[in-house]
UniProtKB/TrEMBL annotation:
One of its GO terms (molecular function) is oxidoreductase activity. It is an enzyme of class 1 (oxidoreductase). This is Dihydromonapterin reductase. Pfam families: adh_short (PF00106). Keywords: NADP, Oxidoreductase. The keyword NADP applies. It comes from Hydrogenovibrio crunogenus. It comes from the Bacteria. Its EC number is 1.5.1.-.
């Protein structure tokens, strides 16, 4: 059985994979979920991380994961809700697609928090953590991403409620990043436009998320809070 593990959802790529690698480098046990098989998933498993393939838009898969987790893990040090589904309104063609956004950003974190509460309370650490990754644009909205941002707003609301429900031994917080890292193939014009949105026009990199995670986990009393990364100057994506 794995004890005092870090559970990271959506760790098959990008931010989730980066966080998993950082924890593994600190010899912290890592449990993670992923939707798609990728070389990064194999690499995490090769380093000793325990991976579960789960599509959070499928309730049956989520239920099976939550039933299997306590059979492999005796306690958790932290839960990091990183799994995300990014869809602009132009691509939301059916009610089911909107429901998928809510499933990934609201339903899954809600059920995971409830299922993981006993494991968090069994940790050898006196105070444990739940951290949700949201989006800096939730605070202002955007005309082209109403569905996506509404679902992330639901995630932030969950964070506030669980912070009260799980206090004082489980801290529950949100990290709301703006730009983190550019995608391969992004044009120079796009990069300049994105950088111009921020009061501090830099590509902060994934280490900015790691630093925020460390701050929240090391804080003795931060709960129900939102760490905003990258203040936006304009309303454009």
């Amino acid at each position: 059985m794995i004890s005092d593990a870090i559970l990271i959802t959506g760790a098959g790529q990008r931010i989730g994979e980066y966080l998993a690698q950082q924890f593994l480098a600190q010899h912290q046990p890592v449990v993670f979920t992923y939707r798609t098989e990728r070389p990064a998933v194999d690499a995490l498993k090769a380093q000793g991380a325990l991976g579960f393939q789960v599509d959070f838009t499928q309730q049956e898969q989520l239920t099976q994961f939550l039933q299997a987790l306590p059979q492999e893990v005796s306690s958790l040090r932290a839960v990091i809700h990183n799994a995300s589904l990014w869809l602009p309104d132009s691509k939301i063609k059916t009610a089911d697609m909107l429901a998928d956004l809510m499933a990934v950003h609201v339903t899954a974190p809600y059920q995971i928090n409830q299922a993981c509460e006993p494991l968090l309370r069994k940790s050898q650490t006196a105070v444990t953590d739940i951290i949700a990754l949201s989006d800096a644009k939730v605070a202002k909205g955007h005309p082209d991403y109403a569905g996506y941002l509404a679902s992330k707003a639901g995630l932030e609301s969950l964070t506030l409620s669980f912070a009260k429900a799980f206090a004082p031994n489980i801290k529950v917080n949100t990290i709301a990043p703006g730009l983190v890292i550019f995608n391969e193939g992004d044009s120079d014009a796009y990069k300049q436009a994105r950088l111009a949105e921020s009061a501090i026009p830099v590509e902060p990199g994934m280490d900015s998320i790691w630093q925020a995670v460390q701050f929240l986990m090391n804080s003795p009393n931060a709960t129900g809070s939102t760490v905003s990364l990258g203040q936006l100057q304009h309303e454009t994506f």
